[in-house]
Amino acid sequence: MSIIQQLTDSISAQISTLAPITLSVPTTPIFQLSKFIHHITNTPVHPVYFPYLRFGVIHAVRVTTVWAGLTKAKRGGGRLQDLFGYLVLAWGGSTVVSLLLNQPPSWLISFTPWIIYISIYTLLIPTGLSRYFIETCPKILFNVVGGLIDGMTRGTTITSLITLISNSSLLKIASEQNQNSSNGEIGIWTYMILSGIAISSGGVIVGLLGINENEWKLITPNLLKGGILNTLDFSSSSLIGLLWLILLNQNQSLESISKSLSNTLPQELKISSKDKDELSIIDIPHARAICVLVLGFILAIKGIILTFIANGIKTKLVNKIDKKTELYILDEKKSATRTEVIKTPIKIKQNSNSSGSSSVKSTPRKSPRAKSK
To answer: Any stretches that span the bilayer, and where are they (predicted)?
Structure first.
């Protein structure tokens, strides 16, 4: 028995004894979200004119709004350069994960991603619709809705990694190195790291190379700058990967936590058919909906915090400008109230006569000297 398994067993035993979880889980949002995710991942936009899944279109549209915000201050640059940066932001995570798993990325073996993302880019970026949307939409609404959409797309991506890992040679190598692990078991650390890489690699590559600028240059990405908000995308994705393994009971070290969580879940969410995977404690669509719901909530909170931070920075800038304007106005008032004394060239001289009367005579002005020619 590994150390992690002993630790999780002791923690779950103490929790169940001292503070048992008896809260009821609302099932209605989970059912609705599960149906929505199933719909967009299996239904095309139009069966004839645009027979491509709605999930890819939603992700492409969301990436255009993010890219428009990143390039808002950009001036100049070619259209091909801009398209390349957009595709790096959209496909960077999946490409890095595919390379790590020794598999070809989807855009290399299929023409479908090119059609979807280039079509959406052409429709929204050159026309300025995405930029107009982010400039006119209220910031808090844009950040909250964007966080919920990111939670849906990212959560679905994280829950799909298990298929890629199962089809790769990485799982076989890990099983051979760890003789105690059963066949088909996925490592906790492996899944958490791949989940974070799949979500944050696109933004890290764009930030590292400065692809959203006119001239590319090496820049420290926000992820490496530290801080809760800068690392939240990576850390939250890793935690959702861990939650996915717990719900599906895909690791023996997490089996005790999975059983404890199974006792708290409603019966409607649990597996009701013997044909399904017996290891899982919950139906896979419902487990995916739970992961999406948790991740969407985290990213929505992040959007609200970023909105208040941006408003605080704007308020400070406005206050600084107002102070400078007040000082400028006061200087103008002071300069306007100053009186200047101008000396006249005429001097007044009093001469007294013998009769005692005084006559005032003005000193004649000197005639200007003639200029020598």
So the answer is: 83-101, 107-129, 141-166, 186-211, 223-247, 287-310
User: By CB neighbour count within 10 A (0-12 exposed, 13-18 middle, 19+ buried), where does 19 fall?
Assistant: exposed
Query: Helix (H) and strand (E) counts for the chain?
Result: 14, 4
At a CB cut-off of 8 Å and minimum separation 6, what does 255 contact? Answer: 5, 8, 249
What's the chain's Rg over C-alpha atoms? 35
Q: Output DSSP code: residue 253.
A: G
Distance of CA 315 to the CA centre of its chain: 22
Q: Mean pLDDT by 10-residue block, N- to C-terminus, for the chain (373 residues)?
A: 62 56 62 92 93 95 95 83 95 94 92 96 94 92 95 95 82 60 71 94 94 90 90 95 90 82 74 53 88 95 92 64 54 54 51 51 56 53
24-49 in b/e form (b: 16+ CB < 10 A) is: eeeeeebeebbeebeebeeeeeeeee
Distance CA 217, CA 200 (A): 19
Kindly give, in sequence order, each residue whose CB lies less than 8 Å from that of residue 358, ignoring residues fewer than 6 positions away.
350, 351, 352
Residues 6 or more apart whose CB falls under 8 angstroms from that of 359 comprise 350, 351, 353
Structure token digits, residue 361: 């005579």
User: Nearest-CA neighbor of 39 among 179, 156, 138?
Assistant: 156
